[in-house]
Amino acid sequence: MQEAKMLEFSEKGDERGHLVIVEGMQDIPFDIKRVFYIYGSDRDVIRGRHANRKTEFVLINVAGTSKVKVHYPNGNECIFVLNKPHTGIYIPKMVWKDMYDFSEDSVLLVLASEHYDASEYVRDYDEYLKEIVLL
Ligand code: TYD
């Protein structure tokens, strides 16, 4: 099974400010079919709590900070801190994830490899554990 990993994007900053470019199949390992962003989540909110059967994601805090905890079926967990607009986390399919500890100014941009399909989300952790052993 593939693991989540941090990605670093190049910055084209000059005296006018910063510019970060993220291109599908170049800076991130898939074609981008969907973009959404999450903001206004309180610090004590936990989002996510799901795995995806088909979709891969890249999460970027374009403003503010948040954390992402990924759970692997062998019980391992990994916490990523998103606190720079030029870094992101790549999340492969069938990785259980939580997003939490949002700063007040957090804007979490999410790039997805697939269009939205509620049926490819696994939202029950026991179901996730059942499906993962079959992979
Ligand atoms: P949800 O998956 O619970 O958000 P998060 O992963 O941040 O915890 O999505 C919240 C609601 O928005 C839910 O009713 C499904 C809907 N939704 C869409 O319709 N399209 C999308 O692309 C996403 C991500 C969510």
Q: Give the helix tally.
A: 1
Number of strands: 10
3D shape: globular
Relative strand content: 35-45%
| SS content category | mainly beta
Strand order of the largest sheet: 1-7-4-9-2
Over all CA atoms, what is the radius of gyration? 15 Å
Q: Percent range for helical residues?
A: under 10%
Give the oligomeric state of the chains in this entry, treating copies of one chain as homo and distinct chains as hetero.
Answer: single chain
Distance between the termini: 9 Å
The profile of the biggest β sheet is:
5 strands, antiparallel
List bound small molecules.
Answer: thymidine-5'-diphosphate
Structure description:
The protein is mainly beta and 135 residues long. It contains one helix and ten strands. The protein has one helix at 125-133; strands at 5-8, 34-39, 47-52, 57-63, 66-71, 77-82, 87-91, 96-100, 107-112, 121-122. The strands form two sheets. A five-stranded antiparallel sheet has the order 1-7-4-9-2, with no helix packed on it. The chain has a five-stranded antiparallel sheet with strand order 6-5-8-3-10. The structure holds thymidine-5'-diphosphate. Thymidine-5'-diphosphate binds at residues 34, 36, 38, 47-48, 116.
